[in-house]
Design goal:
By secondary structure, the chain is α/β, with parallel strands linked by helices. The protein is built from 11 helices and 18 strands. Bound molecules: calcium ion.
């Protein structure tokens, strides 16, 4: 009898070593959501949201619980993934968003390594999928032409996100008839395109990157989810606050203007309802993609599925609405691996970055990683050979924020605001007690700050290179 991968595994007989696939080049499907907090998957502890398909990936695969995005903003985050480098090196660090991707991108590496490379959905990096190494695009969604009339989201606000974006071809033939800006059912169109790629027959393996727009604003009610979740029952984030204690460097940012200050609980609950509906709808579309995959590879003998997001979102936490901050809700990303020889039902607490997917995917694909890649393969973590690949992780936003997270400590430095924060995460996981002025924590703070500055100097952060040259 053929065992279906998707059925619960009752008897585990390990016939081959973990993560040594019979086929050295499995198909790889990378699913990326947009602005999705890592605490919005039911199987990882959210009792309110419905995500049955992501839950199945959790149950049948390995979840990373402390994965982060180094630079929590759409374009820089995605450039780090594409290049395997920090924004200081690949050139996409605000205010400069001009990538220097002269070394091999992930897609180019995989194409050179024998893969068909396919792109679906949101494209936001300078250039086109074809100029960054992807051989073919379907359901390509990118900036187009702004509409003459304002559009409105589910809460009645004028739309400011994804204004004028359209489906298009790689050579910029626009399809405004398929919708201008986000539409309620847009995730189904990305799934349609992904299914078309998955259903193709080829003698070569494929790498398929599917870039959803969910749950980025504007938040629109998706089909068939209108009755799900109610505002009065929606739990507020533990660290909901009406105001942030100081300007963290983005008070006038577009996302922060989505709700007035001070933040009102009812506004946040209303937005969380739609945010959750959009995630559940995306989850449903991921289910369609997984169903299509069952037709071509029912046992997942030859496929790896990776799910992640470009970064998280505050949406009421700490008095903030947007990304562009260093708190856990925003630097944290979901990161799930499922498929051939991936350990089932396991979790990893290793600290890591979104950009680590570059060398990880290359290793899964048996493709060479060039030395210019700064990121680290997570395969030793997946194999359970190592508990950590980094002693700490570093975050950065514009010239406004720098952060280090080491063990249970997090230190955030706000150069423009001339502020610091220090949190002890195991005692204070929601980052509500700033210990930066605590005398008992002075040595901890100083050590974290020193480690952070050395790392930033070594990685080309001009803010600290300037400090260094003055010394
Ligand atoms: Ca994003």
């Amino acid at each position: 009898m053929i065992r279906n991968f998707w059925l619960p595994c009752i008897v585990v007989v390990q016939l081959v070593p973990l993560l040594q696939a019979a086929n050295p080049q499995p198909n790889i499907i990378l699913l990326i959501s947009d602005d999705q907090r890592s605490d919005t998957i039911a199987a990882l502890g959210n009792d309110t949201i419905q995500t049955p398909n992501l839950d199945s990936l959790v149950k049948l695969g390995t979840s990373f619980t402390r994965a982060t995005c180094g630079n929590p903003l759409c374009v820089p985050a995605r450039a780090e993934l594409l290049s395997g480098q920090t924004g200081f090196r690949n050139g996409v660090h605000p205010p400069n968003n001009k990538p220097d991707l002269t070394h091999t991108t992930l897609a180019q590496a995989l194409t050179n390594g024998g893969y068909n490379t396919y792109w679906v959905g949101k494209w936001m990096i300078a250039g086109r999928p074809s100029t960054r190494g992807f051989q073919e695009s379907l359901g390509l969604f990118a900036s187009g032409k702004r509409p003459a009339q304002p559009q409105y989201d589910a809460a009645g606000r004028v739309v400011t996100g994804y204004r004028g974006w359209m489906f298009q071809t790689d050579d910029r033939q626009l399809f405004p008839e398929q919708g201008v800006g986000l539409t309620p059912d847009i995730e189904s169109k990305f799934a349609d395109a992904a299914i078309e790629f998955i259903s193709r027959k080829s003698t070569k393996p494929y790498f398929l990157q599917v870039n959803f727009t969910a749950p980025h604003d504007p938040l629109l009610n998706p089909p068939d989810w209108d009755d799900t979740y109610t505002a009065k029952d929606m739990p507020l984030p533990e660290n909901f606050r009406a105001k942030h204690p100081f300007d963290h460097g983005n008070f006038s940012g577009r996302d922060e203007m989505l709700n007035p200050w001070p933040r009102k609980k009812k506004d946040i609950q209303r937005d969380l309802v739609t945010y959750y509906r959009v995630i559940s709808y995306m989850d449903q579309q991921i289910g369609r993609i997984l169903d299509a995959l069952k037709q071509t590879d029912p046992e997942l003998n030859n496929t790896i599925i990776i799910f992640t997001s470009d970064h998280g979102l505050a949406i009421g936490s700490h008095g903030l609405m947007g990304k562009q901050n260093m708190y856990e809700h925003t630097i944290g990303i979901p990161l799930l691996f499922t498929g051939v020889n991936i350990p089932r039902g396991e979790q990893r607490s290793a600290q890591c970055y979104l950009r680590d997917l570059y060398p990880t995917i290359c290793e899964l694909a048996d493709v060479e990683v060039l030395p210019a890649v700064e990121a680290t393969s997570l395969m030793p973590i997946l194999r359970n050979e190592l508990k950590e690949v980094y002693p700490f992780i570093i975050g950065y936003y514009h010239d406004q924020q720098r952060m280090i997270r080491m063990q249970n400590w997090k230190y955030i430095y706000y150069p423009k605001a001339n502020r610091e924060q220090l949190f002890h995460l195991s005692a204070d996981p929601h980052e509500m007690r700033d210990l930066s002025n605590s005398k008992r924590a002075t040595r901890v703070k100083e050590q974290l700050r020193e480690e952070m500055i050395v790392w930033l100097q070594n990685h080309g952060d001009s803010m600290f290179s300037a400090v260094n040259s003055d010394e």
